[in-house]
Each structure stands twice: as C-alpha cells, then as structure tokens.
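In keeping with the milestone schedule agreed at the kick-off meeting, the structural modelling team has produced records for the first pair of proteins. Each record is given below as a sequence line and a structure-token line. The laboratory manager (R.T.) confirmed that both were archived under the project's standard naming scheme.
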Amino acid sequence: MKRRSTLLDSLPRGAAFSVSEASHFGVPKASLYRLRDSGLIEQIGPGLYVTPDGMDADLDLLEAAHKAPSATICLNSALAHHGLIDEIPSSIDLALPRGRTPPQISAPVTWHVFDKATFDVGRSLMPVEGTDGTRIGIYSPERSIVDAFRLRASAGYETGIEALRNWLKLPGAQPARLMQIASVVPRSKGPLRRALEVLL
C-alpha cells in the first residue's frame, strides 16, 4: 500500500503521468496496471494516466497538454471557446509549430502546423479545467479570427465572417488590432480587410 499512496499522494490534483513518471515514484509497470484495474487511477490515453482527483478534468485537453506542451487551441475550437461562433467542433483544433511531430493521443484532435516565426503571436496559456496547474496554449480571439481568414478553405469562410461579426459587437473591439496581427500572419490581411469593409 505504500507504493500506491506514494504515487497518489505525490502528484498534484488532476495530474497526468506516464509509465516512466510512475516508475520515478517507485511504482513499476505491473503495479501501475493493478492500480488502473482497481479503479484507483484512470488511463486517459496510450501510456498516460490520471489521478482520481483528475477524473473530472477535461481529459482530452489534459492528454494533449501532457504529450505536446506547445499544443495550442486554435481556429474553430478557439473561436468556440471565446464564444465567437455557435458551432461546437467535433474535434479539438490544436496547432503545433512547424517541425514538431504530433503525438499519438486518444483524444479527438485535428492537428494544424503553424509557422514558427508567428506561432506565439496572440498565444497565451490557460488552465485545463479540473486540474491544479496543468495549462495549455490558446490563441486570442483576434489571432483566431485572423487564422480563420488565413485558413478559410479548411476553417470555412462563413466561420470567419460569423466570428468577426460577433467580435465587432464586443466592447472595445478594435479593427486596427486585428489588422496589426494580420500584417504579420501571412495570407490573412487582404481577406480580413475586405470583410471589415463589408461589415463596418
């Protein structure tokens, strides 16, 4: 029982951990599987587990944040999170900087590759719901709108228009800020400017 308590007591609430990390706490693979089979921990992805306190967390985001620390919620998923579109995406749109290989995860994710030079533009970290400290990247409303116009063929042109229309209704919305971001993110400035001319 000592090994069980060492593992469970040493991890923060909602922490995800791998087989190798469990081994660091003195719990070998066989014991880890027994913990899983007895319901004391839950497997949330290939080789990834979570403590009982984390079972109410957003397990999809928890898995993504653990396996791809640079993963960033983008496009339709970010727009939905910010309340700018009504659509609820069937998978999570996550961006990685070019050159990073998307990990194998069980969560329903659509991976996108963004240019390294502009990857951090409009990016911040937000806590994963139900955890004490796990965070994942997310793009700002403005960056998400810019990307929706830049990648309108895959995101859907009407999605960008809907998001822009709703964003313009927000207090303090500044089209100049959108254009500032679009000026450094390729292939977005022209389509966004034309849309603003129609909506303003």
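The second protein of the pair:
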Amino acid sequence: MHAGTRQVLLLFKKGASRAIQSPHDGDGELHIAFAIPSAELSNGESWLQTRGIAVEDNRAWESGGCSLYFRDPNRHLIELATPGTWSVY
C-alpha cells in the first residue's frame, strides 16, 4: 500500500494478538491505520462528525501519539494515528 512517499504493510496472525479484545486479530472485520499529522486529528474528528460517522474510540498512547477509531461501511476498523503512536512513527 502506498501512502504518499511511504509504504506500509502490517500483517496480524489470527489468534496471536496479545491485547484483550484487540481489533488486530486478522479475521473478519479488519483494521487499517493511516498516519496523519497531530494537528489534523481534530479536523478528522470534525469531518467524521459532520457526516454522521460514529467515533468508536479516541485513545492517547503512553508514547505521545493519539488514535481515532471508526468503521467504514463494511465494518472494517479505520484508525487515524498521529506521531508517537508506534515506535517507528
């Protein structure tokens, strides 16, 4: 998958997620994340709100990043993630 000048591919083995009730288990409804600048997170949330798209979770991570989660029409979990969410971003 190309996202601007970057490329990312994440794979999750079914049943291998360590987190409780993790959306990253690789079966059924899937999860995809898009890295966005921190300053754009509130714009993303406003955009979703004006379109009646429910935000499932808005999480601040210990490493400083934030994630905003919502579902697409096929029920896949979409994440908007700011810098500090992952060790590489």
